[in-house]
Amino acid sequence: MSSKSVRAAAVLFPGLLAGAFGYGAVNVLYAFREVPLDVRFTFHTALMRVNGPVMQSLMGLAILSTLILAIRSKSSPRWIAASASALTFLSFLVTRFGNVPINQQIKRWAVSTPPGDYADILRRWELFHFTRTGCAIIAFILVITVVVGFGRPEDATTHTRSAADEPSGEVTAATR
C-alpha cells in the first residue's frame, strides 16, 4: 500500500483538520453566541486573521496526504482514500466560497453597523462551518479505515500460510 510516513501523514493532517473544525463547532461557535455582537465580530475577525494561513496550510496538507495515500493504495483502499481526499477538498471549497466571503462581511461589521439580516448571515456561516466540519470528520474516519482497517496487503500475504505449506509429519524423500 504505502510507506509508514505516507500513512502517518494521511492520518495526522486530516485528523488535525477535523479536530480544529470540530473544536470550533463545539466550543468557539457556542462561545460566540454568548458574547455581545461587537465582541463576537472583533474576536471573529482576529481569529480568522490568525486562522487563515494555518488552516489553509492544514487543508492543503490534508488534501495532499490523502491524495498520495490514494495513489499509493490499491483496490478498495484506493477508492476510500480518494473519497477522503475529495471530502477534504470539499471542506476547502466550502471554506473558500462559503465561510471566507462571510468572514469578510464580519470584518466590516466589526468597525461599522451590521445589516438588518446579520442573524441570517451568521446562521449561513454556521451552516457552512458544520458542513466543512462534517466533511473533515468523515474524511478522517475514511483515512483511519484505510490505514487501520486494511493494514498493508504485503503483511497479509507474507504471514499467511496455506495448509499445503504446513509440514504433515511424514518423512519424504525430499526431507531425508
Strand content: under 5%
Measured between the Cα atoms of the first and last residue, the distance is: 41 Å
Unreliable parts: 153-165
Characterize the biggest β-sheet.
Answer: none
The helix count comes to: 5
Give the radius of gyration: 24 Å
Overall body shape: elongated
- The percent range for helix content is over 70%
Elements, N to C (H/E): HHHHH
Structural class: mainly alpha
Q: Count the strands?
A: 0
Mean pLDDT level: 87
Your description of this structure?
With 176 residues, the chain is mainly alpha-helical. Helices cover 80% and strands 0% of the residues. The chain is built from five helices and no strands. Helix 3 packs antiparallel against helix 4 (118-149). The longest helix has 36 residues, at 37-72. Residues 153-165 have low confidence and may be disordered.
Give the structure's gist in a few sentences:
With 176 residues, the protein is mainly alpha-helical.
Topology, please?
Layout: H1 4-34, H2 37-72, H3 75-109, H4 118-149, H5 153-159
Helix pairs in contact: 1-2, 1-4, 2-3, 3-4
Features:
80% helix, elongated, 176 residues
